[in-house]
Amino acid sequence: MELPLRTIITFLALLTTGLSAGLFYAWQVSVISGTKRVSDQSYLETMQHINRAILNPWFMFIFIGALAFLIWSTYLHYQMVDKGVFILLLLATLSYAGGTFAVTAAGNVPLNNWLDSINLTALIDLRLVEIRANYEVKWNRYHLIRTVFSVISFSLLLVALLTQNKN
């Protein structure tokens, strides 16, 4: 049995969006509360290391792939008779594109780049407190936004697939 391209691409959209939402959600409910309990030096060094380590092909495939597969899946459903599925996919795509991808690119990434440019070992404790305060509050706010929108996108995609299977 050969699967149609639309089914394969929609599955990949579901998989990558789900993995992306899961990563952001898990970070939101565990890592953020854990990092609030460490020293300023430890927090900033840890974030520098994590921000460098996450720039890997697996993460990029999931993060960028979700957007690409959502767009592609939405396009493939455009001509379908049932416009409800298309609209749900379009909303899922817009949610991920604007609330997850764009917020990450315009919010989290510039903060990560700024933090990466700082030589933490050369700073006094008062400066570390200031840097952390400037970084952590903004970064966590952007992260919460992208988490919410990635979960919304995944949920809309699930509803679209459940709706499509009923017809």
From TrEMBL:
Q: Among its keywords, does the record have Transmembrane helix? A: yes
Which keywords describe this protein according to UniProt?
Answer: Membrane, Transmembrane, Transmembrane helix
Task: State the superkingdom.
Answer: Bacteria
The cross-references to Pfam families, in alphabetical order and at most eight, read: Anthrone_oxy
Residue spans crossing the bilayer: 7-27, 58-78, 85-107, 144-163
Name of the molecule in the record: DUF1772 domain-containing protein
> What is the phylogenetic placement of the source species in the record?
Bacteria, Pseudomonadati, Bacteroidota, Cytophagia, Cytophagales
